[in-house]
Amino acid sequence: xxxxxxxxxxxxxxxxxxxxxxxxxxxxxxxxxxxxxxxxxxxxxxxxxxxxxxxxxxxxxxxxxxxxxxxxxxxxxxxxxxxxxxxxxxxxxxxxxxxxxxxxxxxxxxxxxxxxxxxxxxxxxxxxxxxxxxxxxxxxxxxxxxxxxxxxxxxxxxxxxxxxxxxxxxxxxxxxxxxxxxxxxxxxxxxxxxxxxxxxxxxxxxxxxxxxxxxxxxxxxxxxxxxxxxxxxxxxxxxxxxxxxxxxxxxxxxxxxxxxxxxxxxxxxxxxxxxxxxxxxxxxx
Length: 285
What we know:
The chain is α+β, with helices and mostly antiparallel strands. The chain folds into three domains: about 10-45, no CATH class; about 50-135, CATH 2.40.50.140; about 140-225, 2-Layer Sandwich (Ribosomal Protein S8, Chain: A, domain 1). It is about 30% helix and about 20% strand. It contains five helices and eleven strands. It has helices at about 145-155, 155-165, 185-200, 205-230, 255-285, and strands at about 10, 30, 55-65, 70-75, 80-85, 105-110, 120, 135, 140-145, 170, 175-180. Strands 3, 4, 5, 6, 7 and 8 form a six-stranded antiparallel sheet that branches. About 15% of the residues are buried. One of its GO terms (molecular function) is RNA binding.
């Protein structure tokens, strides 16, 4: 049996590379046939799986805590390790505050091919009283593409947010996570919408206008909700239907007490009369 086209298929796993520089996003058979017949698009996507590099800033989710280290998901093909000794002295969070599913901000310090990626939360500048790394217990986290993270690192959008958003803080990483903190829930929602839009829109003015429009709409919804709560609730009282009811007055019946008394007196009188008659008859005999 002959075939005009020789099909060569390879089974790829997440994190592996194809013949180009793309990284496989999910497992499946990667066909090397012609572009019309290939199934490459089903298994290769835009870079979302992070490839660790030394000195990269990353945000991870703790999946295991042991007495010696943390096992952290950093959106890579394998988890990373965060040793207990990699925290500054006296800054190791307690077990009840930093455990499974906690979020941590760290940097990559080792990416050997024969060992797991190693992270560290030690301060780069030891003169600071407070470290930038460690447990993140506030704020909001976005998961996005690696391209958006790279784009934000060289963008003026963050400086505009620092100017118009009160107490705005943001940490952009290289592994597809963005952490930011604001004073209000409305600004947090509006910034999230702008950041996702920034992946496809490069005009800063349009993005800032989108932020202001979103804030105005959210504030309007809050005002309407407050008015609705303050407005007294009117309850429509259903009035009873008046109908012409003919009231029939009962005729007053004479009290029965006098009639009974007279009847008893008559009976007693008859009995006494009969007794007296019987006595008289007996005496005549």
